[in-house]
């Protein structure tokens, strides 16, 4: 990510924090805007053209979306195109990011991170589903409808909106990659860090509470815990937070022992 995009993303995030009336309609409209801009190289190029005056870029946004979108959505889009982005692709990513964050703001009482993680595990466990959602062929809106159907009654409206929107605009990204990024964005918007914990057996409530407290103290922020049960770890646990991996599993110790014996 270029420095221009980093600064632009920060400005867009600040605008979202300051905005009022952010609901799922705003998030839905932002996702729609990301699809529209992403599907048109001419439009994305015009909105990301740093040589054009900000007022001219805002006028393009108004001309394209003004009659259909809510004032809050238009204000956020105007702020986004006011910024200098490193590329047109980064601009589209920026709109999509604010859409995900807006969904997190709109439904703050729901464990959206956890729901996205569980859906990602469902996709990982079903190769045919992953292929259907990740295929370049077929109607993209049908993929969104499929996700909405799968999540009906099983996930919140915010999670359903995020997942069903992302599969319609993959832009060369795998489905699980899209969901993982959304999970991180939601956690960040809520001031949390996502930790994935792999254990041989499910953690008890007391164990999960202690682990969460320990990780929160270590990383200096609240931690959202996602647990994967995998008997192959034998015992202990493996924790991953971003690029950090804490491997205290029995399988890892056995592998180290075998390597030492072989050496």
TrEMBL record:
Keywords: ATP synthesis, Cell membrane, CF(1), Hydrogen ion transport, Ion transport, Membrane, Transport. InterPro entries: ATPase_OSCP/dsu. It is found in: Cell membrane; Membrane. It comes from the Bacteria. Its main location: membrane. It is a peripheral membrane protein. Belongs to the ATPase delta chain family. This protein is part of the stalk that links CF(0) to CF(1). It either transmits conformational changes from CF(0) to CF(1) or is implicated in proton conduction. This is ATP synthase subunit delta. It comes from Microbacterium koreense. The gene is atpH.
């Amino acid at each position: 990510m270029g420095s221009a995009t980093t600064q632009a993303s920060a400005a867009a995030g600040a605008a979202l924090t300051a905005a009022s009336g952010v609901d799922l309609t705003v998030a839905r409209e932002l996702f729609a805007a990301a699809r529209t801009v992403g599907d048109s190289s001419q439009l994305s190029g015009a909105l990301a053209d740093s040589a054009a005056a900000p007022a001219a870029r805002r006028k393009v946004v108004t001309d394209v979306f003004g009659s259909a979108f809510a004032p809050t959505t238009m204000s956020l889009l105007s702020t986004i195109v006011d910024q200098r982005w490193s590329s047109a692709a980064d601009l589209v990513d920026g709109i999509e990011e604010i859409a995900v964050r807006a969904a997190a703001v709109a439904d703050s009482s729901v464990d959206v991170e956890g729901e996205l993680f569980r859906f990602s595990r469902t996709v990982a466990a079903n190769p045919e589903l992953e292929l259907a959602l990740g295929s370049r062929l077929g109607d993209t809106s049908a993929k969104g409808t499929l996700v909405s159907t799968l999540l009906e009654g099983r996930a919140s409206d915010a999670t359903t909106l995020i997942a069903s929107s992302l599969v319609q605009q993959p832009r060369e990204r795998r489905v699980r990659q899209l969901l993982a990024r959304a999970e991180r964005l939601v956690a960040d918007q809520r001031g949390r860090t996502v930790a994935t914990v792999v254990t041989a057996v499910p953690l008890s409530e007391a164990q999960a509470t202690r682990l969460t407290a320990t990780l929160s103290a270590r990383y200096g922020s609240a931690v959202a815990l996602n647990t994967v049960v995998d008997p192959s770890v034998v015992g202990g646990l493996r924790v991953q937070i971003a690029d950090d991996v804490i491997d205290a599993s029995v399988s890892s110790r056995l592998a180290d022992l075998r390597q030492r014996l072989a050496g």
